Amino acid sequence: MASAVAASAAILTTGVPGPVRLDRMTSQAHTRRALFRWLVHLGLIGALIVSLVFEPLVLAIHIAAGLAFTVLAGLHLAQRRRVSARLLARLTRVRILARPSGRLALADLLLAVIAAGMLVSGFWDWFAGHPTKVRWHVITGVALAILLAAHTIRRRTRLRRSAVR
Questions:
Q1: How large is the angle between the packed helices 59-79 and 18-54, nearest 10 degrees?
Q2: pTM (2 d.p.)
Q3: Of 145, 37, 52, 132, which is closest to residue 83 (Cα–Cα)?
Q4: Under a CB-based contact definition with an 8 Å cutoff, are residues 164 and 33 in contact?
């Protein structure tokens, strides 16, 4: 029994520092989160492209890709909780809206509204069994594609060094 206590005491007092192990574990977790973030970005871009390519050809693939895009957009926002919360807070202050950070908040709000409009109009057309007279899904689709292209191009340099905190 005394040897077991001495052995456990020896393990507890070994020269391997604890913070090194924690740093290594933190680094591995950070690497996994960064990889997952990259996969979400690639998934968003891929789902958008697949949805646009297959829309006139196979409607089921277009619908599946659109729903995948919606799920990935939710994951993307969840990964950026802090940024999203700060952007929402900026929208409540009118003076800030003229500044670059306020314009960014407005642009992201517009992106979210157009994406929601795209989803709702797609379901509306699907449940109606035919497109509406005013092609809201097509109009919001074109607007969303343009906004997403601008969103991706403006952030392309940050995509390389993107990290989840």
A1: 150
A2: 0.63
A3: 37
A4: yes
**Amino acid at the residue 132:** T
What is the pLDDT at residue 26? 57
Domain presence at residue 4:
no
Cα(147)–Cα(99) distance, integer angstroms: 20
- The pLDDT value recorded for residue 19 is 46
DSSP code of 133? Answer: S
Contact 68, 151 (CB under 8 A): no
Tell me the residue range of the domain where 109 lies: 21-160
Give the Cα separation of 144 and 110 in Å (integer).
9
Q: CB–CB of 119/140 below 8 Å?
A: no
Work out how many domains the chain is built from and give that number. 1
Token couple for 109: 């709000």
